[in-house]
């Protein structure tokens, strides 16, 4: 017999109250991440009944509840953003259909496995993470649940103080009218864990007489580096300034470590080549495309 | 721990451990058509429908599956007779050792519910989480197409 016990809160407030009373308790979204660590004792707090599963379109944004699954997000992103939306491209290649029915958005954000197909796109989309509890949250669970705030996903992923004592309740990102998206993941076989992934968002203005549009906002994210993920700010700035987007190793803030039998040098070189291909296709090869 | 589970339409009160997966629970209670393969969500042998959606039961804690509709391959049988998907697997020669078959059948059921006439590419995506180490996959694709044809014929004849 294990020493695992369960709590099934019906609300976020109840979940926060349970966490406050049991500081070592762990949160359960879909379970796929927890099962990899196979805990044998302690309290698991199941959020699947806490009312966090809705996906709603709010103006020009999509608000995705933390316990929405990758399958649900994929379906909704395709409905509102079309088949070329960055999340659609990425999530179609993430895990398997059955696993996508269990992996939750909140769990992926909180755990950020290095092979995740969700985090790169969310960073490239400048997503915000909505949190309940934590800083500013005092008193009982209901009062702490009232302490809600929103932080940029980069802050959430890089600063532990953002996440201490909190529950991810939702992720929010903008639905752009003027964006094109690029996506690539390096795998040996289709459903291998990715050694790295690239997510690109290019936003452009009005189409000019030459059929091209100016890029005013470029976001390029490489996931799987020594920093876990990096924004390629140098390439982004060159693109936004209208300069050629020649990519070199100097553009990578940190290297991709050796992984899945591939050397660091090899993976880094492949990342540069693939990013260059994505950018060439997005900026040069399409009539009326961004330039 | 004790929980109420709805398995193949039957409500049962079952004991389980807090660390048990749905796969553990099902096999311990006689649903041995649900196979344990990798136990890491990669092979699909343990696939069941949870509220109509295919999931790897090894990736679901039993404690989170109470009150949800759980359907195994056996649960697809109709009055004790094989479902047409079972029959298609047999007639198409898509079964050799049979270990992957219950998961394949469940995945196919979910596919045909949403897409009654899938292309080869759509079948490949839908069954991408189901690994067979015996037959290759040609007969598997044949079986899905055969099942789709039989279901379509059944509907054309006015079946429910």
Structure description:
Chain A has twelve helices and twelve strands. Chain A has helices at residues 12-21, 32-37, 70-81, 86-92, 97-100, 105-111, 119-124, 141-146, 153-158, 160-163, 233-240, 264-283; strands at 3-7, 26-28, 41-46, 55-58, 61-65, 128-133, 148-152, 166-174, 179-186, 196-207, 213-225, 228-231. In chain A, the strands form three sheets. A five-stranded antiparallel sheet of chain A has the order 4-5-8-6-7. In chain A, strands 9-10-11-12 form a four-stranded antiparallel sheet. In chain A, strands 1-3-2 form a three-stranded parallel sheet, covered by helices on one side. In chain A, α2 links the parallel β2 and β3 (41-46). Chain A is globular. The model of chain A is unreliable at 285-291 (pLDDT under 50). In chain B, 34% of the residues lie in helices and 14% in strands. The termini of chain B are far apart. In chain B, 44% of the residues are buried. Chain B contains five helices and five strands. With 160 residues, chain B is α+β, with helices and mostly antiparallel strands. The interface between A and B is medium-sized, with 31 and 26 residues.
């Amino acid at each position: 017999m294990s020493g695992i016990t369960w709590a099934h809160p019906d609300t976020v407030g109840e979940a926060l109250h349970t966490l406050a009373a049991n500081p070592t308790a762990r949160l359960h979204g879909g379970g796929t991440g927890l099962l990899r660590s196979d805990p044998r004792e302690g309290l698991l707090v199941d959020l699947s009944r806490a009312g966090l599963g809705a996906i709603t379109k709010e103006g020009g944004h999509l608000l995705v509840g933390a316990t929405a699954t990758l399958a649900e997000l994929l379906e909704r992103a395709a409905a509102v953003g079309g088949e070329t939306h960055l999340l659609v491209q990425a999530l179609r290649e993430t895990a398997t259909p059955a696993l996508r029915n269990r992996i939750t958005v909140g769990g992926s954000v909180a755990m950020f496995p290095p092979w995740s197909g969700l985090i790169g796109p969310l960073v490239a989309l400048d997503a915000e993470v909505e949190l309940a509890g934590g800083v500013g949250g005092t008193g009982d669970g209901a009062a702490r649940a009232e302490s809600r705030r929103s932080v940029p996903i980069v802050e959430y992923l890089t600063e532990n103080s953002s996440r201490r004592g909190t529950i991810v309740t939702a992720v929010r990102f903008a639905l752009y009218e003027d964006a094109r998206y690029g996506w690539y993941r390096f795998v040996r076989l289709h459903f291998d864990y990715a050694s790295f992934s690239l997510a690109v968002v290019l936003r452009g203005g009005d189409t000019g007489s030459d059929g091209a549009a100016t890029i005013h906002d470029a976001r390029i994210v490489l996931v799987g580096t020594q920093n876990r993920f990096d924004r390629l700010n140098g390439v982004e700035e060159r693109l936004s300034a209208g300069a050629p987007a020649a990519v070199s190793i100097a553009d990578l803030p940190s290297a991709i470590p050796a992984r899945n039998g591939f050397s660091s040098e090899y993976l880094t070189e492949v990342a540069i080549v693939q990013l260059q291909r994505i950018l060439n296709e997005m900026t040069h090869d399409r009539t009326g495309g961004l330039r | 721990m004790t929980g109420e589970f709805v398995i193949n339409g039957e409500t049962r009160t079952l004991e389980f451990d807090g660390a048990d997966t749905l796969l553990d629970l099902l096999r311990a209670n006689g649903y041995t058509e649900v196979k344990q393969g990798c136990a890491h969500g990669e092979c699909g042998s343990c696939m069941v429908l949870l509220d109509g959606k295919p999931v790897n039961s090894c990736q679901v804690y039993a404690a989170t599956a109470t009150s949800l509709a759980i359907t195994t391959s056996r649960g697809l049988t109709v009055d004790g007779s094989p479902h047409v998907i079972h029959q298609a697997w047999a007639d198409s020669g898509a079964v050799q050792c049979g270990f992957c078959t219950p998961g394949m059948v469940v995945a196919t059921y979910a596919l045909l519910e949403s897409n009654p006439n899938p292309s080869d590419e759509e079948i490949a995506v839908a069954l991408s989480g189901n690994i067979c180490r015996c037959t290759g996959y040609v007969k598997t694709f044949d079986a899905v197409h055969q099942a789709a044809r039989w279901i379509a014929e059944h509907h054309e004849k006015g079946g429910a």
